[in-house]
């Protein structure tokens, strides 16, 4: 039985797809057979971030509709043979994802994989609700910014009332906070909510803090998930996050400002 | 921070504190509505309409709160601030 992880947020542009790609890759690098599914029907982008956009033949909706089987639609990652991608469809049909259809595909994948990572679209429409419905674990991706934190709280409400686990009175979804685009320098000057502030407001367990990093844009430019960039702070922070998801205790890094050299301090940067 | 910054005023308003306070209020409010039944917003609206037949009030003068005391008992608390001179 696979563990189903949803990467969700409510608000758009906070880093769900970047995080889904990084976390799925990280799990696969740890030897877990992992599939990452794009739930953003009509606005497919995970394929670009994973660098497999030219290898898409069949998609998630084709599989649900029986137009292709899973083996035809799954794309094997170039870099990691434990990792597979199931791309979203570019159809404009909003109701393409049904509970039965998605459930059937997840059941089938569940036999074969250790982890299923569901990359949720923004908002609280059908795609987002389907991405979270079957989840065992939720990674609530949040920026240290008021609208993102508020939307994350709304999504926590959905996880607790609209998911399969809630409807069937099972053990609740494990909820984790992933704070992205964090800037310790701005926290220090009182311009940005701190890790402690956001953790206190949302009151869920912190699984990772990803610093604002130029490496993220570079990674998406080249279609290589940022976790593969082992020289970048963001890549290392995602690697730590994956270890924590697997139950290891890892201290948090990049929470304080990088020390500047003597000359920089005198003359400014 | 360059050496020039030391001569500038250091009294910047701490906007992160403001953000946190605003969020704590709105999130508490959101969570209050989270557990309410689906009919609750409509019922609240209708209660306001009924009061308006007699007294002109605005929506923020009415607070309707549903509290779950234990498994068997919910309390509906209605608070109306009436304007002066009525």
Automatic annotation (TrEMBL), chain B:
Domain of life of the organism encoding this protein: Bacteria
Keywords, in A-Z order: Cell cycle, Cell division
One record GO biological process: cell division
One Pfam family, short name: MinE
Job of this protein: Prevents the cell division inhibition by proteins MinC and MinD at internal division sites while permitting inhibition at polar sites. This ensures cell division at the proper site by restricting the formation of a division septum at the midpoint of the long axis of the cell.
HAMAP family (UniProt xref): MinE
Entries under NCBIfam families matching the protein: minE, PRK00296.1
Family per similarity comment: Belongs to the MinE family.
Name of this protein: Cell division topological specificity factor
Organism for this UniProt entry: Shewanella electrodiphila
């Amino acid at each position: 039985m696979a563990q189903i992880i949803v990467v969700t947020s409510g608000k758009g542009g906070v880093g769900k797809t970047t995080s889904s790609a990084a976390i799925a890759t990280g799990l696969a690098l740890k030897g877990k057979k992992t599939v990452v599914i794009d739930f953003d029907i009509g606005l497919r982008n995970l394929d670009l971030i994973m660098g497999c956009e030219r290898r898409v033949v069949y998609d998630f909706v084709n599989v649900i509709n029986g137009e292709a089987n899973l083996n035809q639609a799954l794309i094997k990652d170039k870099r990691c043979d434990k990792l597979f991608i199931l791309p979203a469809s570019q159809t404009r049909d909003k109701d393409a994802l049904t509970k039965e259809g998605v459930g059937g595909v997840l059941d089938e994948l569940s036999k074969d994989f250790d982890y299923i990572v569901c990359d949720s679209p923004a908002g609280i429409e059908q795609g987002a609700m389907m991405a979270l419905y079957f989840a065992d674990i939720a990674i609530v991706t949040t920026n240290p910014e008021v609208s993102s934190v508020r939307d994350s709280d709304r999504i926590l409400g959905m996880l607790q009332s609209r998911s399969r686990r809630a409807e069937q009175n099972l053990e609740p979804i494990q909820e984790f906070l992933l704070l992205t685009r964090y800037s310790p320098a701005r926290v220090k000057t009182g311009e940005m909510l701190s890790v402690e502030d956001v953790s206190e407001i949302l009151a869920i367990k912190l699984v990772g803090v990803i610093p604002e990093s130029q490496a993220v844009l570079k990674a998406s430019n080249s279609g290589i998930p940022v976790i593969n960039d082992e020289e970048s702070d963001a890549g290392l922070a995602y690697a730590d996050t994956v270890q924590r998801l697997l139950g290891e205790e890892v201290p948090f890094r990049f929470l304080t400002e990088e020390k500047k050299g003597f000359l920089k301090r005198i003359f400014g940067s | 921070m360059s050496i020039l910054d030391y001569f500038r005023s250091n009294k910047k308003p701490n906007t992160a504190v403001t953000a946190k306070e605003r969020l704590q209020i709105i999130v508490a409010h959101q969570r209050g509505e989270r557990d309410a039944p689906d009919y609750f917003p409509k019922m609240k609206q209708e209660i306001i309409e009924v009061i308006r037949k007699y007294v002109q009030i605005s929506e923020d003068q009415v607070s309707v709160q549903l509290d779950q005391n234990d498994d068997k008992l919910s309390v509906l608390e209605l608070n109306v601030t009436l304007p002066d001179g009525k």
